[in-house]
């Protein structure tokens, strides 16, 4: 199935409350912030490479969003939403260094979904939960537009990079390694 652009006011029906809430919050932020974006409907897909092909853009323009857990001193932890280009891997050692953590790992699925408000594979590159720190690799910001699932496996956003940076206010750090 090929991807098709949608009007801003129409999105596919979806019955999952959390996903609806996060999608609505995202779209409200984009609208109220005057962002330049388009919605793209496509077959349900959470894998970055396949979703990128469905949306019709280069893999390096995909915002791959991964929730990580940084273990600090004692039993405390902090969570980082790492946003990297789709053709790269998250560098956990670099996040560990940036956070001053003992260890960094991928957050378990339930925690990632709770903090992001999205099902795995549809996590948006915005941190709506204050317990989630947003870090983006500058390589993703080298493009005019980025693409990501809109808290929905069958709906994506193509967003102007300048508008993304202005609205998301991410911490910009080199957090990738080539696969």
Give the arrangement of secondary structure elements:
Elements: E1 4-6, H1 17-32, E2 37-41, H2 48-55, E3 63-71, E4 77-85, E5 89-90, H3 92-99, E6 103-106, H4 109-116, E7 132-136, E8 145-149, E9 155-160, H5 161-168, E10 171-172, E11 176-177
Parallel strand pairs: 4-7, 7-10
Antiparallel strand pairs: 1-2, 2-9, 3-4, 3-6, 5-11, 8-9
Main attributes?
179 residues, four-stranded antiparallel sheet, disordered N terminus
Report on the structure:
By secondary structure, the protein is of the alpha+beta class. The protein is 27% helix and 29% strand. A five-stranded mixed β-sheet has the order 6-3-4-7-10. The chain has a four-stranded antiparallel β-sheet with strand order 1-2-9-8. The longest helix has 16 residues, at 17-32. Residues 1-16 have low confidence and may be disordered.
